[in-house]
UniProtKB/TrEMBL annotation:
The lineage of its organism: Eukaryota, Viridiplantae, Streptophyta, Embryophyta, Tracheophyta. This is Expansin/Lol pI. It comes from Medicago truncatula (Barrel medic). CDD domains: DPBB_EXLA_N. Residues 39-143 form the Expansin-like EG45 domain. Belongs to the expansin family. Expansin-like A subfamily. GO terms for cellular component: extracellular region. Residues 157-239 form the Expansin-like CBD domain. Keywords: Glycoprotein, Secreted, Signal. It is found in: Secreted. Residues 1-16 form the signal peptide. InterPro entries: Expan_Lol_pI, Expansin/allergen_DPBB_dom, Expansin_CBD, Expansin_CBD_sf, LolPI, RlpA-like_DPBB, RlpA-like_sf.
Amino acid sequence: MAFFLCFFFFIPASSATACDRCLHQSKASYFSKASALSSGACGYGSLALDFSGGHLAAGVSSLFYNGAGCGACFQVRCKNQAICTKEGTKVVLTDLNHNNQTDFVLSSRAFTAMAQKGMSQQILKLGIVDIEYKRVPCEYKKQNLAVRVEESSKKPDYLAIKFLYQGGQTEIVGVDVAQVGSSNWSFLSRNHGAVWDTSRVPQGALQFRIVVTSGYDGKWLWAKKVLPADWKNGVIYDSDIQITEIAQEGCSPCNDETWS
């Protein structure tokens, strides 16, 4: 039985305020093709093109967080009031941004979504803009957390899975797997991005335990029956659970207002 000692405890600094909407200032640029972001370090592939209407982003290492930040949602707005709206746009992190000159590289659809009506070409001509952004919960209406079996899986010796439609405002920091009805759990390791794998694959139908960041520490979620005994590569399976937890941290300033 695997035990995770990976609960995250966020201890706010004395000058910080308990917050789940920390406000950050930076810059953003864009990729002309969203496919450049969907095929990125998180490993979502073409599935990412359906996330948030194709409003995708590559984030710097502090946001990518060694893959734990994959699937995180952010509200981003540019600060040029002559061109941009006060609301900005909501993006999903799907890739790692290696250029530390900007916190984000957005898909062109997300980049132009920050602009006022009729100003799309003007913001594209700028190429790079000053922004402010904050982490926000991901919402997938009527969509549970899903598990996709990767093509690299080889029954019965190797299983690689990818988590899709991760709701809430969390990171997945640990995963266990066991045969349905068994308490003999084995842990999975993060292979890269949103992909987890193990060479200790239980037989039969499979259940999962997932540790997500929640509040100032972590929380176990139990998906009691996810993969059938005859699971197949390339197939997406419903976990029958939804992640709605919100992680807290310490920051200043905190911005919990609705941007509109």
